[in-house]
Design a protein that fits this description.
The chain is about 40% helix and about 20% strand. It has one domain: NAD(P)-binding Rossmann-like Domain (Rossmann fold), CATH 3.40.50. It is globular. By secondary structure, the protein is an alpha/beta fold. It has a 6-stranded parallel β-sheet, with helices on both faces. The protein has helices at about 15-25, 45-50, 70-80, 105-125, 150-160; strands at about 5-10, 30, 60, 85-90, 130-135, 140, 145, 165-170.
Length: about 170
């Protein structure tokens, strides 16, 4: 079955791998990022993204500027757009004790992913029709170099999420 799929942050890294994988599977894939005027740090552009994805079957929330992913989940739920399955890309950093001596950006990133996890749990409890999956990938990059097995990871992720309506998983 061909699906309409939306991916935020589709131009590099995991987002590009998602985009390429689903396009090659014959799905209709639309990317949303700064490259096509969807700077998701801009409130109006986030609202436009929610409007634009109303009839998508699957939405990957991959871009992570500020607390975008968390706000996106809440906004989507507020509009009660439960016809789409949302897959949010979290991080296993939520399970790591990050020393305060590291760059503050690492702690901010962890805080963003913890907020995403909290929003996911709140919304699936509140709305029984809310199809939200939160995936915490294993380490996908080394020294900012993309893992050559990223497409294989996406394939495994696709197999996993196709069997789920809601949930949270660590995927290695």
């Amino acid at each position: 079955m061909t699906m309409n799929i939306a991916i935020t942050g589709h131009t590099t890294g995991l987002g590009k791998s998602l985009f390429d994988f689903y396009t090659n599977q014959g799905h209709y894939v639309t990317g949303f990022s700064r490259s096509n005027d969807f700077d998701l740090r801009n409130w109006d552009r986030m609202q436009a993204l929610i409007d634009a994805t109303e009839f998508y079957d699957l939405i990957f929330s991959n871009a992570k500027p500020d607390f975008f992913q968390t706000v996106f989940l809440y906004e989507f739920a507020r509009r009660e757009k439960f016809n789409s399955k949302i897959v949010s890309i979290g991080s296993r950093i939520i399970h790591v004790d990050v020393p305060n001596t590291l760059d503050i950006g690492i702690n901010l990133y962890k805080t963003q992913k913890l907020a995403l996890q909290n929003a996911h749990h709140q919304l699936i409890k509140r709305y029984q029709n809310f199809k939200s999956i939160l995936i915490h990938p294993a380490h996908l990059y080394d020294n900012n170099v993309q893992n050559p097995n990223l497409i294989e990871w996406v394939k495994n992720m696709d197999d996993t999420i196709s069997m789920m309506a809601v949930g949270e998983i660590n995927l290695g």
